[in-house]
Structures are given as C-alpha cells and as structure tokens.
C-alpha cells in the first residue's frame, strides 16, 4: 500500500477516519467526503470524526 490518498491517488495521506483509524485520505478528499458520504472508504464503517495528522519533516 502506498502513501498516497486512496481517493485522489496524488496527495499524501494525512487524515485518519475515526473510530476505525484508517489513515487513508488527504485533507482535501476528507473535506469532500464529509459532505458526500459518512462511511470509511476502506472498511465502510460509519465515520464519527476525521482527524488530520500533521507530520513534521526532520531537520537537516
């Protein structure tokens, strides 16, 4: 499984679906999902909350 969003396949994954904890979407696709569907794109479990994960790049 790659590191790109399972919906747009271009942006990096940075949003987890709760309560199933699938880290599978970018923030833009997650925003769109909130208005179109209420199910996780991986397991189809109902979405209670979306959690954006910010990853800090290591300093050189």
TrEMBL record:
<keyword id="KW-0479">Metal-binding</keyword>
<feature type="domain" description="RING-type">
    <location>
        <begin position="5"/>
        <end position="44"/>
    </location>
</feature>
<keyword id="KW-0808">Transferase</keyword>
<dbReference type="GO" id="GO:0016567">
    <property type="term" value="P:protein ubiquitination"/>
</dbReference>
<dbReference type="Pfam" id="PF13920">
    <property type="entry name" value="zf-C3HC4_3"/>
</dbReference>
<dbReference type="GO" id="GO:0061630">
    <property type="term" value="F:ubiquitin protein ligase activity"/>
</dbReference>
<dbReference type="GO" id="GO:0008270">
    <property type="term" value="F:zinc ion binding"/>
</dbReference>
<dbReference type="InterPro" id="IPR013083">
    <property type="entry name" value="Znf_RING/FYVE/PHD"/>
</dbReference>
<dbReference type="InterPro" id="IPR045194">
    <property type="entry name" value="MGRN1/RNF157-like"/>
</dbReference>
<dbReference type="InterPro" id="IPR001841">
    <property type="entry name" value="Znf_RING"/>
</dbReference>
<protein>
    <recommendedName>
        <fullName>RING-type domain-containing protein</fullName>
    </recommendedName>
</protein>
<comment type="similarity">
    <text>Belongs to the RING-type zinc finger family. LOG2 subfamily.</text>
</comment>
<keyword id="KW-0449">Lipoprotein</keyword>
